[in-house]
């Protein structure tokens, strides 16, 4: 009895009179309502008088509900209910009997009231619409938008919604136009035109045309002609039936601009300024592709003075076609210099090479080979070479103390014989699987009586275009033809333009500002391959990316510390997320060693890579443990030596001045900092990819290496005079055993051993393998296929139109 008395007092105190008077439910349900009201005191779900408070924007945070208002005769008040189940959400016009409903907060307990006791019902969607209309009328479009969005999503068939949404777009467009938000105004007007073409058509079209005109003018004034062109083409296509005045006006403007540039190009051609003429006529065609006479003028300029524009991410300051750690030096060096043996690709047994002076012959036992000079088959100045000079060059590479001494060659060759003026023979100490790989030597003008370092390729650098006279620091470097062209269509100039990013290069290629991109981000290559005007091609040989210690930092000298650094890099995440941007690119993978893994399964390119050695995973806890172990080891060693333990100075991580290397190193730094390491990034000067050890500006450097022939490149990467300058005894033993291999089976076995040694000793920290791509506009023909260097067939290039 005491419990019932308290409950009755609670009912009277909370005010459920309206519900009780109309006989809503039995007493048990009343008690549930009261209990719900006490529990949810922060918001009333019913009351016996007044009206519900206006929640404003908080209405959107409430559960959808309807509100029933009771008549004064029934006692007044109101109640929030779960959405009422009316056919089509329309209350009956002449209701009779009872209305069943559930009060919000007491779901599952059905209540009912006489229809004659109900004054009105506010439906949820009607309330949303009312809020939206009031806010639109007040100019609060930001506040109206969420109410309108919910209506569009949940009540698409609501009567008056189309008119409400159209009015919102129109009024918001007017408001944005007054604030000078031209692009946003155009977006609103276009959305309105697409959604409700019947809404004030003349006014909307007139406003759309005027807004487009203003935005076009802004883009042209800002020099963003490409964006203006794209917008004009879209407007013309989408509103061809509306005949926008702005489209007519700007089509004429662009035609006039293109005509002026065409006329200026003709004047430049007549003044023999073919560089300027080509630039102007390209711009004219871009502005107006069907401009009369423009394409014919372009063809004429191509015929008179062929020139190819190449977009590059790295400019070359050194020109060395055999450099494995410098992409730009390798690329531009091929224009300037020929190499005694030039790699053309990869075969089932190592690289495929061409002897630039003739042909080669190898004995069946691989103990002897001859160089056969064929001057009649080569063009000047290469036809001047003779056997005695080649013999002298080869001998100097085998003499200790000579500036040209090369230890692997000295270890391989036993004697050199001059068979005649056109034949040089080489007797080897032991069978060698690929002795010509030891003879990748740059050939300069001194071989033919010229100055040391003078070019032997088809091109030479033009004078620098920047005030300081540093060609590599200039945005544009020109390579001009040194002699008479081999063919009428051979480019007289190859112009390299350094780009700030891969995305900039893609934009310039699509616009026709450059004809070729020498290196693409893998993600850009995948996206660009969908373009009809551009061809994307993969280089057949991948590059190996690694971190190479380059200072006497006491901690980096410790294998345990280097292992900790590797465990502290999430290589798969950086490769997949940062560099590939979540896209799939065949052949791009994390590595466990310093050699390429090949692109496909059982790829002969991966003959040096042990697929059974998995890359170390990302394990920060283990990395921290190894760091602590390494410090304790160094502390104990210092105590035994009665010395101070070496100070842990910041790790200076260097990288070349290109976007891909920068992105990768920023990610590596952030992950090393999670290990409580202090890391400083050092961007190398343009054109440099490896810091001078004497300068001591870095401790470890990010390297992208062309390890295309591991049988010879292993020493160039790991050897005492290579990039790593490793003095590790196991690494040295592995290199010596490799160079003593007598057949390809021994080569493979010993390279796999060297892979295992490198995985354990970590003279370099392997990161990942990248399959690089180049792209060119389809009007450029003669690129060739499976080229390992961009300029491999540059003499055969021809621009059409």
How would you describe this protein?
- The protein has about 800 residues and is α+β, with helices and mostly antiparallel strands.
- About 40% of the residues lie in helices and about 15% in strands.
- It has a 7-stranded mixed beta sheet, sandwiched between helices. Strands 22-26-21-25-23-24 form a 6-stranded mixed beta sheet.
- Helix 22 runs antiparallel to helix 23.
- The longest helix is centred in the first third of the chain and has 26 residues, at about 245-270.
- One of its GO terms (biological process) is peptide transport.
- One of its GO terms (molecular function) is peptide transmembrane transporter activity.
- Keywords: Signal.
